[in-house]
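Why should sequence recovery work at all? Because a backbone constrains its sequence more than one might expect. Tight turns favour small or flexible residues, buried strands favour hydrophobic ones, and helices have their own preferences. The token representation captures these environments compactly. In the example below, the structure is given first.
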């Protein structure tokens, strides 16, 4: 975005009959289990009354910390509040939103990251090198993990594999990283 914060959204449309079973809380819980499994316990979500931390090897080192989840209409929101991957001056910015929304084609299941200021970008005016480094590392990993999660979640709920097709869609102004 203009202020060098990151916006990323991935979604998939699930069959409408699943609407009665799907909740944003269920989506968040499955995602936390998935993070642990897909990282081979390198990143362990730690949940407490004060929030959720993605900890490195189960230590006290939090890669990213979130306040306690808040429930909004058709979404659960985790507001970023710190962590080693967040720019120190911007620890209280950004959020991750787990959403479920009915639409004509079915149920849109989405994971949205917005307002996040990655440490790797360094400032509100990152160099080309820092943008490239972020694109090749953190952004690529985030996208892969999220897309794979949505495909596995679809299979878990429907019993059949979804044909995954990633389509780049511009939903906000900004430059791609």
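From this structural description, the recovered sequence reads:
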């Amino acid at each position: 975005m203009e202020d060098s914060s990151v916006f990323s959204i991935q979604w998939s449309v699930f069959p409408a009959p699943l609407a009665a079973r799907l909740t944003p809380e269920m989506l968040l819980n499955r995602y936390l289990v998935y993070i642990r499994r897909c990282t081979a316990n390198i990143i362990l979500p730690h949940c407490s009354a004060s929030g959720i931390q993605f900890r490195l090897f189960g230590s006290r080192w939090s890669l990213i910390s979130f306040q306690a989840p808040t429930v909004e209409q058709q979404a659960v929101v985790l507001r970023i509040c710190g962590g080693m991957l967040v720019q120190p001056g911007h620890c209280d910015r950004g959020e991750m939103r787990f959403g479920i929304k009915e639409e004509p084609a079915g149920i849109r299941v989405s994971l949205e990251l917005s307002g996040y200021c990655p440490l790797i970008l360094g400032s509100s005016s990152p160099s080309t090198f820092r943008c490239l480094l972020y694109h090749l590392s953190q952004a690529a990993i985030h996208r892969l993990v999220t897309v794979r999660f949505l495909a596995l979640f679809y299979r878990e709920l429907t019993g059949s594999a979804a044909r995954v097709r990633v389509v780049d869609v511009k939903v906000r102004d900004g430059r791609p990283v």
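A few observations help interpret the result. The chain has a mean pLDDT of 89.
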